[in-house]
Structure formats: structure tokens, C-alpha cells
Amino acid sequence: MGQIGRLEIELFLIGGSAGSLKVLLDMLPAVRPDLTFPVVLILHRKAGPESMLDILLANHSNMGVIEVEDKTTLQPGTVYLAPADYHLLFEHKSLLSLDCSEKLNYSRPSIDVSFQSAADIFRGNVGAMLLSGANADGAEGLAYIKKSGGLTVAQDPSTAEVAYMPARAIERGAADHILPPGQMASFINNLSVSTN
Amino acid sequence: MLEPTIIKDDELEVLLADISVLYGYDFTQYSKASLKRRVNRICLLDKFASFAELRYRLTHYPEYLQRFIEEITVNVTEMFRDPTFYKALREKVFPQLGTYPFIRIWLAGCSTGEEAYSIAILLKEANLYHKSLIYATDLNPGVLETAQKGIYAINQMRQYSENYILSGGREDFSSYYRANYEMVKFNADLREKMIFSTHNLVSDSSFNAFQLVVCRNVLIYFEKELQNKVLRLFDDSLDPLGFLALGAKETLRFSNLEKQYKQLDSEKIWRKLH
Fold this sequence. Notes:
The complex is a heterodimer of chains A (196) and B (274).
Chain A: E1 11-16, H1 20-27, E2 39-43, H2 53-59, E3 64-67, E4 78-81, E5 87-92, E6 95-99, H3 111-122, E7 126-130, H4 139-147, E8 151-155, H5 164-171, E9 177-179, H6 184-191
Helix pairs in contact in A: 3-4, 4-5
Chain B: H1 9-23, H2 32-45, H3 51-60, H4 65-72, H5 83-97, E1 103-108, H6 114-125, E2 132-138, H7 141-149, E3 151-153, H8 157-166, E4 177-180, E5 183-186, E6 194-198, E7 210-215, H9 224-237, E8 238-246, E9 261-263, E10 269-272
Parallel strand pairs in B: 1-2, 1-7, 2-6, 7-8
Antiparallel strand pairs in B: 3-5, 4-5, 8-10, 9-10
Organism (chain A): Sphingobacterium allocomposti
Keywords (chain A): Chemotaxis, Hydrolase
GO molecular function (chain A): phosphorelay response regulator activity; protein-glutamate methylesterase activity
């Protein structure tokens, strides 16, 4: 699958903002539940007490979906959702932590913050995808991952409800691959070690 | 803008050891991912080009310590953050506290005081403030000065007012402060029963017995072992049947205290059983 010579993927990150939820709901059902790495979602969302986003995502996925709490442990084949109003950070390869420091790019969670933190811990063993959005958040984080040797993907802006976010990442040369939503699940599946 | 990484992991360890030995502040059991970001941030803010420069300033200029600690700890807070939490305090906790002749509340990690004023407003509206004391503590003396003044930026008030209403508040929120240009000052009667003091959760011990301990979004910055130590400190500071309130994403689940506490519904409030 053209991944020869690539480092093994130990974590897959997906960042998204306006227009990204529909992409996720279309893509997640086709992602294999036996992935050999965890999937972490950093989505811009309104802070609110009654958010059901984790339940909505779980209904569209064959994997378990966990909204991250303080010091959540990562397991392969599981989707982790950054909670509203916290930045999500990586302590080590299997431990997450939260931080409610200042917003970055008007965002908390900030995609840039989590992408940078993941790259510092996982180095080249991380894949990251940036979806539709109206915010500049994520482009710099994706570039940071690429610079650290990770594998980067941007949603094809022509398929995005709001092209700005993936377009910013592509402009700055942060994306190894540019994919339409229909190809995302198989791309992720093919990164799994158990896949032939 | 993402901040460049100036401090490496092993350098951070050296720095934390210095601070502990020289000044007695122990950050070695703080969560490293967040702490590293904060130390990088202060290097940019104060224009240290390298770890060596930061280390030199810290070890040779004791007066820099306060600023350093204030900047590496997170002091972001707001009034009535997570309004449903405050609603639960009003509806489920205060009716219990009201049965005591005297109510002692410890707000640990109070930062610039927004939570202290939020709780004071709730107590007033429950007609309990006259028999309450709020002990608001923080590691940083600087933020306590801000808390004591009760002066905040006016542009936050719309959000706080919305939070207040969502928490079940029925008064006119603006009646609790007076506006002056871009700032507001909260009414002095809200401060009457507040006691501000420095307290380091890492190294200081219990100083009183409380019916309610509130410590929200502080434990997230600690590694699990330190979290357990601090939770034991809270346990030692709580009367039987007292309440412990943590942040929205914090939990007692990984601690050995869980069996001695009962969680109230879905909120992050636990009641000590005996």
C-alpha cells in the first residue's frame, strides 16, 4: 500500500472545525475497529453541558468512542474525543492529559496544541488529518507533524464545506496527501499494521 | 502561533530540581506536557533564547521566582464556569450545608478569585452567606491580590451573566458589581466572608475542617501520584458528610478514596460517607 519505508503509525489524529462533523459521520463507519493504533479527534465545539457529540460519533463508528477525561489511557482501535473547553495533551505514548490554559487561534481545544504535543511524543510515528473548517487552527500543527516526520493529510478543499482550514495547511506545504472524504477511511485502515 | 520548543525534557528536570532545592517549590510531580508548554511560553514572554538563560535568571535572581511560578501555573478561570455545576451546588449541596450552624468552605487553587465571588453570590442568594467562611487559597501571592480586589474586565461580564442565569440565578447579575470604564468591581459585601491565603497543595498540610472543598481544574496539572496525595489532603480536611467538588473532567475514580465517597448524579461532586 505504498507505506514501504514509512514508520509504523502509533497514533492517528483528526482535527476539524466547521463542516467536519458530517465528514466524520460519513467516514467513521468504514474505519476498521481492529486498528492497531488509537484515533484522537480534536474538534472545535461549543462548550456546553449537554453535549452528545461522543454518543453521536459512537453511533456512527464500529469503534468505542471515549470523551477524554483527565489522565485517560490510550488503547488501539478506540476513538478519543477532546472535551470542550480543554486543550488535549500527550504525557507519553499511552497517556493523555488536559489543560485549560489560554485559547490558541480562539480555540480550546486547539488542534495546533494537540498536534504539536503528539509530535513531541510520537515523533514520526503519527498520522494526522485536517478536515473542513473556517479557522486557521491546525495548519501550523499539521506542518509541525510533517516536520517531525509524521504522515499528514488534508481534506481536499473542493470537497470541504468550509475550505479555509485544509487550504491553509496545503498552502504551507503541510499535507503529504490531499483526500476527498470517500477515501479517508481506507487510507486510515491501510495504516494499520494488521492490514495487508 | 505555535511556540517553538526551547526547553528539552531533561532540561526541564534540571530546572525543576533547581527550583525545589533553592526555593522549596516542588513541581516535579506536575504533568509534564502542560508544564513544558508553560516553561516554553515564559521563555518567549521574557525573551530567553535558551535554557541556560532562563536557568541563570531563576537561580541568581530570587525576585524572578514569583513571576516564573505565576506564569508556569495556569491561572485561566471564569465566573460560573460549567453553570450546571453551580446549579448542583445551589440545589443539592447548599440545602445540606444550610443545616450547619456555621459553614466552612475551602476553595483550593482559587486563582484570581472568580470562583470565590461566584460561590459568595450563590451563598447570598441561598441566605447562607452570613454564617459562611470561604477560605480561598492559591500557590501564587500575585493572583490572590487580584482576587482580594475583585476587579475584573467588563468585557467578560456578558459571558458571566449568561453563565449565572444558566446556573439558576434570578437576580440582575449587574447588581453585584459596579462598572467603571473597562473594569467592574464586585461589591464589598461579597468579600466580607472571604479569607485569602497562600497554600501550596504539594507541600502544605490541612489547616482546618470544612464542609465543602472546591478544587476545580487544578488536579489536571498533577501526575496521578500527586493527585492522590492532594485528594488525601482534601479528605483529611473534610468533615464527615462533607462535599468535595472537582473540575468537569476530573475524577476520584483512580484514587483509593472512591469507596469512601458517593458521587452526586452526574456532576463532579462527591459526598464523604463518614
